[in-house]
Design goal:
This protein is α/β, with parallel strands linked by helices. It has 2 domains: 169 residues, Quinone Oxidoreductase, Chain A, domain 1 (Alpha-Beta Complex); 133 residues, NAD(P)-binding Rossmann-like Domain (Rossmann fold), CATH 3.40.50.720. Helix content is 29%, strand content 28%. Strands 3, 5, 6, 9, 10, 17 and 18 form a 7-stranded mixed β-sheet that branches. The chain starts with a strand and ends with a strand.
Length: 336
């Protein structure tokens, strides 16, 4: 079968791989669409901290059930997405009902090979029926679930002023769900193109370009109080550290992006604000199902989130082009 291998940073190639062997309790899925995530671009450029090469990328997946155990309840040919975070079921986090932060987690496309291939064999519990969704919509469920999970972690309500730092796909997911919770949402980014995309997805959010006047703008928007909930989706150490100053007294700071370096902050400022510092990792099955239901109900403008399309065989040539045009890119979806 065809697969796309990232052999080392900046080196993608088409590869022939043997078909996966499906074991009992697994489902063989014919992959049809794969969303390109910031993680994939980090892998391509050598900036992903939890990875060894070569690696088949891809964890935002849509496909069709090819073969499954009769007891799985999955119909051959059914359109599905995949929860790509494989839990161990035995560690403390799993036992406490938090499989998204399993101590032995294996994430497709990061710790193990992912879905940029014609077929994958995955545990049946990871396969989610998305009847009624298009393949493109199914490929967007995972990154939207991450945004929803972050908003739930931040306990966002209608009385909150929310700031999202980073207007990529994850940041836009956070902004969308915070707005659905009734919050007043602001998004900032260093790229004006991404901010224009964000405004097109959610016209009633406020956006601003990060420059020398950004602190004054944020202060003015909040009468000097700053934000009840700040979400970092930037992937930048400098942005994460700066974000501490944007949290209001009594507020929450949710780190959605992950960086490989240490971050530092002022302990006196942290304590005098009684700030909550919250990590948000991956998503739960409940988040996936909520996103699927919202897409079915028309609450999420998936057609505005999907900005680029390409074929798998074009990836070695087109991924560098996508990297160069990140200001115009929100979500690229690969057809297998």
């Amino acid at each position: 079968m065809l697969a796309i291998s990232c052999n080392k940073p900046f080196d993608l190639s088409l590869a022939e791989r043997p078909m996966p062997d499906r074991s009992a309790g697994e489902v063989l899925v014919r992959v049809r669409r794969v969303g390109m995530c910031g993680t994939d671009f980090h892998i391509y450029s050598g900036n992903q901290p939890y990875l060894s090469y070569p690696r088949v990328m891809g964890h935002e997946l849509a496909g069709e059930v090819w073969e499954a155990d009769p007891a799985s309840g999955l119909r051959t040919g059914a359109t599905v997405t995949i929860n790509p975070y494989f839990r161990c079921k035995t560690c403390h986090a799993c036992q406490m009902g938090k499989p998204n932060c399993c101590m032995n987690i294996r994430v497709m496309g990061v710790h193990i090979d992912g879905g940029l291939a014609e077929f994958v064999a995955v545990p049946a519990e990871a396969v989610i029926d998305v009847d009624g969704l298009s393949l493109e919509q199914a490929a967007m469920v995972e990154f939207l679930a991450i945004g929803l999970h972050a908003v739930r972690r931040g306990s966002v309500t209608s009385v909150d002023r929310v700031l999202v730092v980073g207007a990529g796909a994850i940041g836009m997911g956070v902004a969308l769900f915070a707005r659905m919770a009734g919050a007043r949402v602001h998004v900032i980014d260093t790229n004006d193109g991404r901010l224009k995309r964000a405004q097109g997805v959610c016209p009633d959010i406020k956006t601003a370009l990060v420059d020398d006047s950004i602190d004054a703008w944020l202060s003015e928007r909040t009468e000097g109080n700053m934000f009840d909930a700040v979400f970092d989706a930037s992937g930048s150490v400098a942005a994460i550290e700066k974000g501490f100053s944007y949290v209001a007294h009594g507020g929450r700071y949710v780190l959605v992006s992950v960086v490989s370096q240490n971050i530092t902050f002022s302990d006196p400022e942290f304590h005098k604000r009684e700030m909550q510092l919250i990590g948000s990792r991956n998503a739960m099955k409940h988040d996936f199902q909520m996103v699927i239901d919202m897409i079915r109900g028309g609450a999420i403008p998936t057609e505005k989130l999907h900005t680029h399309s390409l074929a798998a065989a074009e990836m070695p040539q087109k991924v560098p082009q996508l990297m160069a045009a990140r200001g115009d890119l929100l979500k690229a979806i690969v057809t297998i």
